[in-house]
Amino acid sequence: MRGRSLSVISRSIDNYVTGVSERSQQRGGLKDEGYITHDIFDDNMNSTTTSSQIQAWLESLRPKTLPLAIAAIMTGSALASWSGHFSWSVALLAFLTASLLQILSNLANDYGDVTKGSDTEQRIGPKRGMQKGLITAQQMKTALKITVLLSCLSGIALITAACQSTSDIIGFLGLGLLAIIAAITYTVGAKPYGYMGLGDLSVLIFFGWLSVLGTYYLQAHTFSLSTVLPATACGLLSVAVLNINNLRDIETDSQNGKNTLAVRLGGTKARYYHAALLAGAMFCFIAFTLLYLNNWYSWLFLLASPMLLKHVLQVLRDPTAEGMRPQLVQMVKVALLTNILFSIGLILN
Fold it and tell me: How many CA atoms lie within 13 A of 81 on its CB side?
């Protein structure tokens, strides 16, 4: 009985499938009958691949690093406002240009580290598009060219809106070209300076002095020695972000010949160096406030001190590279908060 029942069921299934096949041919295939086909699976696969590629590009663009570029322009614009020379158009174009240069640096860093073999499977930090194999070297080169073009267009618009003399135009065109070269050659080229321990100095120059002082000058059309202190503070906070990043990757960087300053100093000294960077930044902000400001809200930036102190203690106490991963996020937040509070104090003055 059991064998006969199975035979009947088998014939019923065959008849059903045959009937479906015939009707499908008459009406245009199984899609018209509402049955799942290989095409649907293909569509889902294509959709998943597209989603993965978009995610890969976002990871390579690293939008979470943009606050560093924005903080410097914000501080420079706040200084311009404090001196009575703020310009919305110049400030917004400076924001855009700095963000594009930051993205250019991120893409170049992704390309350079992968092609040089620094981004290995052992790396603690997040794996990015090229490392995952979702972005080819040729695609990244194209993205770099597009970003360079956009940076140039934005920079030219900024110079056109802000500069009032031929010497200023020539000077800022030269600085813009220098910024593009620095963003690319950090990890790209025969001798990338990021592999020689010069990344910290570059960040201090471009995320501190040039970004803050340049933004101030483009709006005030003059240079003030007083602005060097907050520009240095802003730059030191950005260097601290880079240092935490390098502490996180210190083991794999050392193994792959990427001799960052953290690698050269060693883990322990690099942690004391980190504390010195943050102490130096706060000293510059305090010195500027004592010398040039005279209201209680000029000290708003001190509200970030508890977060800063907590961060420093955690960095000093945790000797592991893995422990630096959450500290990188914290450092970005602390740097941004400190600059925001300092800028608010300036504007209120």
Answer: 17
